């Protein structure tokens, strides 16, 4: 039973890591390699607002997510827009911003192991014979809620439908009056906000470190490659596959196999079905 | 004619006046220059009288270990300079720090960068001695050749627990005699740890352990040695798992420890993510006491940051001193001075070792009465002083600090347990300030 419960927790965490990255790519065909940096940016800024400025926890979270959304939108509006259509340059530019943000924190001394956010719900519960903390159960709830909300948003709202329209056929949607740069700014801002929401629910499990940003980016890319870009079901399927595989590999083969299975799935996916399990992006191997 | 003579005289006077003004002006201009030159000569002489001793510090400043070492060294240098400096053959000379960020702890940074950092300190900054790092074993081992080439004496005081360091010195003394180390080696650390576990077994009667180590060289070596050592002593090893650096979920291992009814959990990690392990252990109420090298839990701020979820965890420090104990008087003064300067108690063992290393060097220079490498090496080999972690002496063949025993006789490590928001020393018995406690769900 603990494999099922912790496998589900691990899968939802991976899905949360990947949700913002997948949203941006699905809409603007832009691989935002600053995704991990935006994740830790929310972690550190929430910590700062909470512990240095004295704003309450919820206020700190809202403010941090708002700031990171603006930063995400600004990244596209002032930088990525200039290299639009050049995939290599887009990756290099976004990765450079990401590294700059992360190393800025290291440079400013954010290197202690005590940068931690408090859990929303304290304590543990015995769930079907497995002791698990409420924060992990909250992650499952938030993760599933985000996935459902994103589906509703992209299928039943005007902005969401315009985002999908741009992703499906840029020229046709432009003829319908949809402005691609504006939707890309919205996508980047929303993707950054998703990175922020993931950060505030996942980071209380451990501590905030600069290296976390790199780890989040790698995991997000892995989920998107295996699950397939452009499909929410694909992202969730990829996260479930990798999440349960990691827990199973740890239980049956040993913990050092957990990264091996991820890499193995990436290689197998790229050989057998380069667009991913449920992906719609056929040039995936050229883009990521 | 008369008019012509008058005109001539007037011209002559004018020329004389101009010459006088020019000469006077020149003098006015030359005098200050002369004064400045004299001043420079005088001050230069004065400067030579108090020419500083340059300590090169190659450390990874982007990581807590590097910051910890820098704080210890800075504190000691300021204390020594406040008392007049180092007495070199009757002349008091201040210490001057030159710090180089070698980035050797950062992932993906090549060892060559650390070597350039060390060499730059010696060549450009004219470092008389090297103290502190490099911190990563691989970088420190490679730096030995640089130190040997420049005949520069170095004392490591942060990281580098690999036994290979002092083995190389012992095997090729003439080449590597410039290298000393106070951090210790993982082998005596494990010996000390096994003695501690035996002592706990005698007191509590537990004999089942679950070992969890990080997938890095020193942790794997420690885990294997612990496993073999404990098995020989009759302990039952419930599980032995190796975790890749950056692991963020330990639920499977903890479940195995719980199912196997392990009484002790021995983590050996230097990665920050180990705090997740401790929080999961607390949340899952695993009835096994965590006791091991859990680097992220050494910080005084850990209790507040984890909201007390590190309670009862026992943390090994490679060297004592970062938590005050009456058994080692220098540790009390050091912890208090650190708190006054930096606002917190020392974080890791490397603050304590790096503080003491400056005093070790000062003592050696004063006995050598010179900054000469050969004379300093001879003096260092005869070192015998009390530091923040006990008595400091070096093995003259391997230049490894002599450790594991009574702090009055050797350097000692320390086991501190998190109780009521504070780190308290529980082992070794000679420096313990409190007895080991078990969490309520283990009683």
Helix-strand blueprint:
The complex is a heterodimer of chains A (288) and B (443).
Chain A: H1 2-28, H2 35-53, H3 57-78, H4 87-107, E1 124-127, E2 130-133, H5 134-156, H6 158-168, H7 170-175, H8 180-202, H9 210-227, H10 232-252, H11 258-272, H12 284-287
Antiparallel strand pairs in A: 1-2
Helix pairs in contact in A: 1-5, 1-8, 1-9, 1-10, 2-3, 2-4, 2-8, 2-9, 3-8, 5-6, 6-8, 9-10, 10-11
Chain B: H1 2-49, E1 53-59, H2 64-82, E2 86-88, E3 91-93, E4 95-101, H3 111-123, E5 129-132, H4 137-150, E6 153-156, H5 164-171, H6 173-176, E7 179-181, H7 186-204, E8 208-214, H8 217-232, E9 236-243, H9 251-259, E10 264-269, H10 274-283, E11 289-294, H11 302-305, E12 314-317, H12 329-342, H13 349-368, H14 373-381, E13 385-387, E14 390-392, E15 414-419, E16 422-427
Parallel strand pairs in B: 1-4, 1-5, 5-6, 6-7, 8-9, 8-10, 10-11, 11-12
Antiparallel strand pairs in B: 2-3, 12-15, 13-14, 15-16
Structure in words:
The complex is a heterodimer of chains A (288) and B (443). Chain A has 288 residues and is mainly α. Chain A has one domain. Chain A is built from 12 helices and 2 strands; from the N terminus they run ααααββαααααααα. Chain A has helices at residues 2-28, 35-53, 57-78, 87-107, 134-156, 158-168, 170-175, 180-202, 210-227, 232-252, 258-272, 284-287, and strands spanning 124-127, 130-133. Chain A has a two-stranded antiparallel ribbon. In chain A, a hairpin with a 2-residue loop joins strand 1 and strand 2. Chain A is globular and about 60 Å long. Chain B has 443 residues and is of the alpha/beta class. Chain B is built from 14 helices and 16 strands. A 7-stranded mixed sheet of chain B has the order 9-8-10-11-12-15-16, sandwiched between helices. In chain B, strands 4-1-5-6-7 form a 5-stranded parallel sheet, with helices on both faces. In chain B, helix 2 (64-82) runs parallel beside helix 13 (349-368). Residues 43-48 of chain B have low confidence and may be disordered. At the A-B interface, helix 1, strand 2 and helix 10 of A face strand 9, helix 9, helix 10 and helix 11 of B.
């Amino acid at each position: 039973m603990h494999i099922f419960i912790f496998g589900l927790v691990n899968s939802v965490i991976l899905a949360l890591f990947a949700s913002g990255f997948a949203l941006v790519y699905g809409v603007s065909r832009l691989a935002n390699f600053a995704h991990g940096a935006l994740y830790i940016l929310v972690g550190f800024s929430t910590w700062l607002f909470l512990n240095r400025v004295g704003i309450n926890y919820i206020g700190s979270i809202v403010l941090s997510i708002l700031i990171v959304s603006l930063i995400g939108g600004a990244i596209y509006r002032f930088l990525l827009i200039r290299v639009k259509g050049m995939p290599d340059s887009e990756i290099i530019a976004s990765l450079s911003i990401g590294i700059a943000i992360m190393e800025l924190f290291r440079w400013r001394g954010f290197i202690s192991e005590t940068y931690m956010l408090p859990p929303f719900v304290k304590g543990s519960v015995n769930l079907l014979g497995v002791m698990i903390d409420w924060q992990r159960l909250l992650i499952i709830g938030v993760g599933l809620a985000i996935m459902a909300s994103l589906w509703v948003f992209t299928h039943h709202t005007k902005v969401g439908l315009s985002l999908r329209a741009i992703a499906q056929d840029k020229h046709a949607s432009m003829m319908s009056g949809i402005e691609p740069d504006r939707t890309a700014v919205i996508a980047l801002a929303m993707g950054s906000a998703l990175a922020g929401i993931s950060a505030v629910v996942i980071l209380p499990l451990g501590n905030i470190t600069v290296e976390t940003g790199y780890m989040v980016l790698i995991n997000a890319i892995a989920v998107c490659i295996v699950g397939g870009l452009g499909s929410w079901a694909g992202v969730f399927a990829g996260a479930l596959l990798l999440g349960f595989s990691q827990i199973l590999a740890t239980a049956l083969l040993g913990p050092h196999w957990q990264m091996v299975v991820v890499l193995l799935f990436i290689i197998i996916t790229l050989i057998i079905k380069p667009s991913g399990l449920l992906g719609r992006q056929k040039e995936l191997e050229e883009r990521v | 004619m008369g008019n012509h003579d008058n005109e001539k005289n007037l011209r002559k006077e004018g020329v004389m006046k101009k010459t006088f003004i020019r000469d006077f002006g020149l003098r006015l201009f030359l005098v200050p220059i002369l004064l400045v030159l004299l001043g420079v000569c005088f001050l230069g002489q004065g400067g030579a009288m108090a020419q500083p001793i340059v300590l090169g510090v190659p450390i990874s400043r982007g990581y807590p270990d590097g910051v910890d070492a820098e704080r210890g060294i800075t504190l000691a240098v300021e204390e020594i300079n406040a008392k007049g400096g180092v007495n070199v053959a009757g002349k008091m000379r201040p210490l001057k720090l030159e710090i180089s960020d070698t980035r050797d702890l950062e992932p993906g940074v090549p060892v060559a960068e650390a070597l350039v950092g060390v060499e730059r300190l010696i060549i450009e900054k004219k470092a008389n001695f090297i103290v502190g790092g490099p911190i990563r074993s691989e970088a420190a081992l490679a730096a030995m050749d640089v130190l040997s080439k420049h005949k520069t004496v170095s004392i490591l005081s942060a990281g580098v627990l690999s036994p290979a360091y002092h083995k190389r010195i012992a095997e090729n003394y003439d080449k590597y005699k410039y290298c000393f180390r106070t951090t210790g080696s993982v082998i005596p650390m494990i010996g000390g740890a096994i003695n501690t576990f035996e002592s706990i077994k005698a007191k509590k009667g537990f004999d089942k352990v679950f070992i969890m180590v990080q997938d890095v060289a020193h942790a794997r070596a420690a885990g294997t040695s612990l496993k073999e050592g404990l098995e020989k002593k009759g302990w039952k090893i419930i599980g032995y798992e190796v975790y890749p650096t950056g692991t963020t979920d330990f639920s499977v291992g903890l479940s195995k420890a719980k199912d196997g009814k392990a009484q002790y959990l021995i983590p050996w990690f230097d990665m920050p993510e180990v705090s997740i392990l401790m929080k999961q252990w607390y949340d899952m109420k695993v009835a096994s006491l965590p006791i091991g090298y859990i680097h992220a839990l050494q910080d005084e701020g850990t209790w507040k940051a984890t909201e007390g979820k590190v309670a009862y965890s026992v943390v090994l420090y490679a060297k004592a001193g970062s938590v005050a104990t009456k058994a080692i008087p220098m540790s009390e003064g050091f912890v208090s001075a650190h708190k006054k300067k930096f606002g917190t108690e020392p974080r890791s063992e490397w603050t304590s070792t790096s503080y003491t290393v400056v005093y070790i060097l000062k003592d050696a220079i004063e006995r050598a009465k010179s900054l000469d490498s050969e004379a300093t090496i001879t003096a260092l080999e005869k070192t015998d002083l009390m530091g923040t972690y006990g008595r400091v002496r070096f093995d003259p063949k391997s230049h490894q600090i002599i450790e594991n025993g009574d702090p009055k006789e050797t350097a000692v490590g320390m086991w501190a347990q998190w109780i009521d928001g504070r780190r308290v020393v529980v082992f070794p018995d000679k420096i313990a300030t409190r007895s080991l406690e078990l969490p309520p769900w283990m009683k």
